[in-house]
Fold this protein.
Amino acid sequence: MTTASSADHPTRRDFLYVATGAVAAVGAAATVWPLVSQMNPDASTVAAGAPIEVDLTPIAEGQDIKVFWRGKPIYISHRTKKQIEEARKVPVSSLPDPQSDEQRVKPGHDQWLVVVGICTHLGCIPIAHEGAYDGFFCPCHGSVYDTSGRIRQGPAPTNLPVPPYTFVSDTKIQIG
């Protein structure tokens, strides 16, 4: 006849040890969570200008997207060769705000135009691929921008601004 030892069967004391350990682990996690989460920047800091990265891979040629940085709409246009050629044919001296297309894009990345999508007249948001120059058209007061974001007609005094951005790789940019 063999007798069973206490090591073979869990006892009430073993259950209390496991339950106490589980409650302690949950309590420790509940204590540490706020300390770790407070190290992240709050939403107002992120909105105030934290840089954002944008993957350019899904943007087809001739298409543009709108992202938001610092609460402002940013247009990222994947321009066609035709759009680039048309923008570069324009005599800079004929523009109300003289700036060449080369000054508005990054060297080696002529197909990518990145501009703040706020009309420089009264702050409206222009529509992409509209107007006489296939660039941007502000329906509020009729300002027309070309495929380089330069003012061509209307009351807007200056070109659409180019935000600070860099190419992290050939397919990704960082704005801010």
